[in-house]
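**User:** Hello, beginner here. Are you able to go through the protein record under this note? It all follows right here:
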Amino acid sequence: MTAGTMIPCARCGAANSLTSLSCWSCSAPMPPSAGGSEPSPRSTGWEGPTIATHGAGYTYRPQVQAAKNRNWISALITFVVMLAGIGYGLWWVTGRPMAQLPDEIGQRTRFTDLESKNNSDEITRADQSNFAGATVQTGIYGVPPSQKTLIITTFEGSSVTSLTAFEQTLGASAEGGRMTTAGGVSLDCYAKGPTWITDTCFWEKDGIYGVAQVRASSLDDAEAQTRVAVEAVVTSWREKLIGR
């Protein structure tokens, strides 16, 4: 053996192999560098053995690299999830279709003349002031050229969570109305009189709130006409949502 492969015994000075666990001469234990295995990285917290790869000057620590790989993958997953959340938020705010008022409701056609548009805009602005941040739309329906018998206003994105809170925000009294729920549509209808110039129904379905002002023969007729209108509005919204 050459000197580079031998180590002297600390007790007697005898030359021993680097792999010796004890001195061949006096049986004294040899230092760790002379033999035995290196301590376990898991038990000592050590970073792990250095393995020379990829040429001179490059060291690779398997456990450290594995941890870095895991951190990188976790960071990538977090980034993708954040992007998905941001994208969904932008879609909900800017791309999510609002309740689309249909061109026709039953036998009624939506009026698109300038006067009707101006009246619709006026109603929308007045109601919008009661619901900051909500999207408000108004449509006037009837039989052309001049028989206007239905006004529908829809509200989306408002902070209200109940039909009662919705109608009270618009100034309706909690008394005097007739509340019914059927087919997923909640209604609270008021007969025309000193307060309402037409039969008026407040409604909610699928998170869309609205008001229907109906020229009807009775409150029962107003409720029936409002249900037809609500179904037309919600169906139109669903069709727009799925891109039909």
Q: What stands out?
A: Residues 34-64, 87-96 have pLDDT under 50 and may be disordered. The helical segments are 41-44, 62-95, 114-128, 163-169, 219-241. The longest strand covers residues 147-156. The first helix runs from residue 41 to 44.
